[in-house]
Each structure stands twice: as C-alpha cells, then as structure tokens.
Amino acid sequence: MIQEKSLQTMAIAFASGKGGTGKTSLSVNLAAYLSCSREVLLADLDVDEPDAALFLANAEKIQSDPQTVPIAQIDTNKCTKCGKCVSACNYNAIAVSPLYVKIFPELCKSCFRCRRHCPEDAISFREAPIGEISQYRDGNLTLYKGKLRTGDIHTKHLIHLVKSEIRKSDVALRIYDCPPGTTCPMVESVKGADYTVLVTEPTPFGLHDLMLAVEVVRSIDIPFGVVINKSDEYDGLIATRCAAEGIPVIARFPFSMEVFKKAGNGRLVYDVSGYAEHLDLMFQRIQEDLS
Amino acid sequence: MRTVAFASGKGGAGKTSLSLSFFYFLREQSVFADCDVDAADAFLMIEKENLTREPFESGYKYGIDAGRCSACGACAPICAFDAISVRNDVYTIDQLSCEGCGACDDGCPDQAIARWNNRCGELMTSRSAFDTPLVYARLKPGEDNSGKLVHKVRQRAADEAIRTHKPLIIIDAPPGIGCPVIAALTGVNLLVVVIECTRFGFHDAQRLIGLAEQLRLNHIAILNKCGVHPELEQTIRNYLSEKNIPLAGVIPFRKAFSDALNKMQLIIQSEDASLTQNLTEIYQTIHRML
Questions:
Q1: How many other β-carbons are positioned within 10 Å of the β-carbon of residue A290?
Q2: What is the pLDDT tens value at each position of chain B, 290 positions in all?
Q3: Which of A102, A191, B205, B268 shows the smallest number of beta carbons within 10 Å?
C-alpha cells in the first residue's frame, strides 16, 4: 500500500459570518508573528477580495499561475440537436432548438455529465480562466493568494484550487484567511481545517452573524473558538450568549485606536503594546483545545 | 421604479448601516431589500412584523439508498466533486460537497441513487418599523446558488414596491464581488460604493468599481471611517476624480457609529447631531442622483 507522506499539519481557519470583523488582521498578524520563530503558511482564501498580501510589505512574489475551469463546448458540426445533453444538465446550462444549440458558460459547473450523454461525441471541454494563484515569501512566511477575475462567479472553484495547491507544501502550520458569510465559499474554506477561529465584534450584527457561523462549524464538526475583536464595553452581548450556548470565547482583542490606525494603513500590528500577548494566549488556547 | 444599491467589496465598511439610514431618510417611498443572503442582519434593526416565510428550492441533491446499493463503487469516480466516499463498504454522498449534477445516477447499475429537490433557503417578507416592506432571505449553511436567491429577493421587493406603490427599492448588497454581488447589482439605477478609508477598503472598492464598470452601472461614492489616514484619503479622492466618480460625502470615524448600533438605533437617529446632519446632506445628494 502506498503511504501518504506522514506530515503532521495543523490548519487554523479564521472565519466570521459578518465581514469586517478582523479576520484578515488577526490571521495575518498571527502568521507573521509566529513566523518569527518557525515556518508558517498563510492562505488567503477570500478570493473575491484578497487583502492579506497588503499587510506584507516585504513579501516577494515568487510565483503566479493563471487558473482555469473546464467549461463545456459543443461542436456544431457533429451536434444533431437531439437534446440529450439538455435533459442531462441539471444546471440548465444548455439550450437547444431545431435551429441552434447554445451553452451558457456561467451556468456550467464542470460536471461532465453532458459529455457522457452525448451520442455524437460533440461535446468537449475548454479551459476557461477564472483567476490566479500567487505565492509570496517573506522570511519564514509563505503566502498563497487566490484572486478571482472580476465578474467571474467561480469563487468556490478557485478556493478549492488554492487548497489543492497548499497540499503540496511541507509547512506544518497553516493559517487560512476565509471569506465572510456562512454559505458555500465559507464552508469550502473551513472544510478540512483542524480548528476554526470565529472572529466577531461586539455589535448586534456581529452577534447575529456569529451565531450563524457557529451553526455552520458545528454542522461540519470542526473544533472552534470565538475571538471578540474590537472588544469594548459592549462585550457582554457576545459573552453572555456564548456562555449560554456553551461556546468557548478563546481571546479578546481590545479596541485600540493605534491598532485601527496602523492596520488601516496596511501595517502589521503585533508590535503594538499588548497585541502579541493576546496572540500568544489565543494560539496557546488553540493548541490546548486540539491536544 | 428605481433601484439603488449599497455595496463596498470589503465587509464591515458600513453598507448595512448606511443603507438602513437611507431607508429611514426615504421611508415614505421605499422598499428595503437585504440581498446579503449569507448573513442578512438588517432585519434586526427594522423588522416590525414578519408576514411570510417561504422555502427556497434550487436544483437537486442526491443520496444513496443503502438498501439497493451493492457497493460496486461505480458512482465514486464519476463524481466530479469528490462527494462520494466509502467506509466499511458503505457508500455515502457528502451533502456539503454534492453539487446536484446527477452524474452518479448515470453510473449506478442498482438504481440506488435517490434525488430530491434541494430546499436551500428561505425568503422572508416583512413589515418594517416604518410600515413599508422589508424583504430578506437566508441561504442554508454551505449552500451555493446565492445568486438565484438574491434574484428572488429582488423580484419580491419589486412585487412589494408595486403592491404598496413605492417608487424606490434600496438594496443592501453582500460583501465581495462574486456571484451574489453580481446578482444584487445587475441593472440597478445607481450603485453607492461605500469606501472604508483604509488600504483594504480602498483596494476592495477598486475591485468593486471594476465590476460596476463591467456591468455599466452609474455609481457614486461615500468615504466612510475618515480622518485617520489623511494621505490615503487624498489618494482615494484623486482616484475618484480621475475616474469621474462623484463623491456624495465623507463620514469621519466615530465611536457614535457602533454605539448607535448597540443601542439598536440607526446611525441617522444618533444623538451626535453633526453625524445626522452630515448623513442628511449625503442622502440628499444621492437622492438627487436618482
């Protein structure tokens, strides 16, 4: 039997229901901070709006590859317009009439079912561009960044491709910066992670979207903990609800104008007084929860 | 009927706060459509009474009938989404990975593949605190097809606007620039780009503006959380004037923003009089553009 290479990896995903709670700030700062003493891999999976690289001023781009998905196309010379592909396609991506046949590429999900159903062998697949994956290096930190083409809808595919790319790496500690929300792109990002950090902020919106995100990570059975970012006098809102529902709050990062200023300018903030201690505590807690 | 959408690319830039206050500003004449079907939360602030909840179905899901399955394994390699796995000779389809294409059914010699309609979300129609309609939706965790559900929200908002004789639909768009955002913005009369005055806010807004250009949308900008990075603010202003994008106004970074939220107030109802004055002027400008 062939053995998978026995690399003991730990993948920590930073997610949140609500956008703008600080997923990118926290994940990049944790990755950069930990990379002072070890190799760290950071994956920017928010392919709609990949921002992690903006924090890493000294990062050097070492590779960038265009990414594609296979999209069905029909050879009109071979096609007899029998319509078997139309009934096979559950996404309504193909239309046929006695006069013409048309594929709507934005609806094609690359399942290849139409090709199997075509009796004329008239369907093939072309590689359509959806974006790119770039690799950056900054000291001990390797960043993988997926970037979706503007106007493209293959968010999930590109996230999947970034994750396949990461699998080739031999860096043990992996940190994922995930897209906001609770649906397909978020689930695709956190799936397979060993631990998910749900980042929230003390507002009614932060709480509401946190509870949605908790439901997701519970349903896919990933250990998780909540971080209250921009923590202030309204923390009780989140803390009370979490306590009532048995949800662990693993760290709080107090609101600080200094952090807001520096981070907003695209600078790392782990050297701001107190910040690194919070990162240490959070990372320790994650390791404890996992052991 | 006119439609105005608030979007930002980046999450947390202030879309919901600013669109809700705009709704309050024009409450006599508008319908509110929360198109962030991943995490709709505008209703927390303005829902008075929910009128209907309807299931949203889109596409199919597939499963394996263990009673019929002979564990031949023909289905697994056909699945393009790696959704089929086997454990102790029992094949199962992971519902989160299944994209509902039905390819597995083609390969199964035992007719063991079951198909059902995918009930993947809910569409809600409500009465807002201002007695005008509020439409929002919720997609189930892990579901795809957010674009279709966004489309449903917009359709229902249009029906409600006709029913209640409102001339304006206000859309709160999801973050990002992908499928649900495209569905939320296509064909709107005006897009209000909420730019958070940080490097990230600016970066993401530029991606959004690229999309707005592709979709040929009229757009206008609001600069939010200003006063912290004056140089960056100037860069953004220069960018906007080069692009000929009008600036509706500038909102300084204030704690009053999140304080109002925590008091369950709209920011336009904040006790900070200069903030409400500032917002009123911005909304007048946007209203004129419409």
A1: 11
A2: 999 999 999 999 999 999 999 999 999 999 999 999 989 999 999 999 999 999 999 999 999 999 999 999 999 999 999 999 999 999 999 988 899 999 999 989 999 999 999 999 999 999 999 999 999 999 988 887 789 999 999 999 999 999 999 999 999 999 999 889 999 999 999 999 999 999 999 999 999 999 999 999 999 999 999 999 999 999 999 999 999 999 999 999 988 888 888 899 999 998 889 999 999 999 999 999 98
A3: A102
* Residues on chain B touching A265 (C-beta within 8 angstroms): 198-199, 229, 232
What is the number of other CB atoms lying within 10 angstroms of the CB of residue A170? Answer: 9
**B13 in contact with chain A, both atoms CB, cutoff 8 A:** yes
Q: Are B38 and A208 in contact (CB < 8 Å)?
A: no
Annotated domain spans of chain B: 2-57+128-289, 66-111
Which of A48, A88, A202 is nearest residue B176 as measured by Cβ atoms?
A: A48
Q: How confident is the model at residue A3 (pLDDT cuts 50, 70, 90)?
A: very low
Angstrom CA distances, A38 to A29, A30, A44, A260, stand at: 14, 12, 19, 27
Instruction: Assign a CATH topology to domain B66-111.
Output: Alpha-Beta Plaits (3.30.70)
Neighbour tally for B82: CB within 10 Å: 11
Using a CB-CB distance cutoff of 8 angstroms, which residues of chain B are in contact with residue A48? 9, 175-178, 181, 207
pLDDT single digits (tens) A25-55: 999 999 999 999 999 999 999 999 999 999 9
CB contact under 8 A, B197 and A237: no
Give the C-alpha separation, A78 to A85, whole Å: 13
What is the residue type of A232? D
Helix (H) or strand (E) holding A28: helix A23-34
Query: Do residues A183 and B139 lie in contact, with contact meaning Cβ atoms separated by under 8 Å?
Result: yes
Whether the Cβ atoms of residue B37 and residue B146 lie closer than 8 Å to each other: yes
Three-class SS state of A57: coil
CA distance B165 to chain A (A): 30
Q: Is B262 on the interface with A (CB under 8 A)?
A: yes
What is the spatial distance between Cα B42 and Cα A236, in angstroms, rounded to a whole number?
21
Asked if B94 reaches chain A (Cβ–Cβ under 8 Å), the answer is: no
Instruction: Mark yes or no for CB contact B143/A184 under 8 Å.
Output: yes
**Structural domains in chain A, sorted by start:** 10-68+131-290 (3.40.50.300), 76-121 (3.30.70.20)
Best probe of the B interface among A48, A113, A215, by most B CBs < 10 A, is: A48
What predicted TM-score, i.e. pTM, was given to this entire model? 0.91
DSSP string, B72-89: ---HHHH-TT--EEEETT
CATH of the domain spanning B2-57+128-289, picked from 3.40.50.12500, 3.40.50.300, 3.40.1210.10, 3.50.50.60: 3.40.50.300
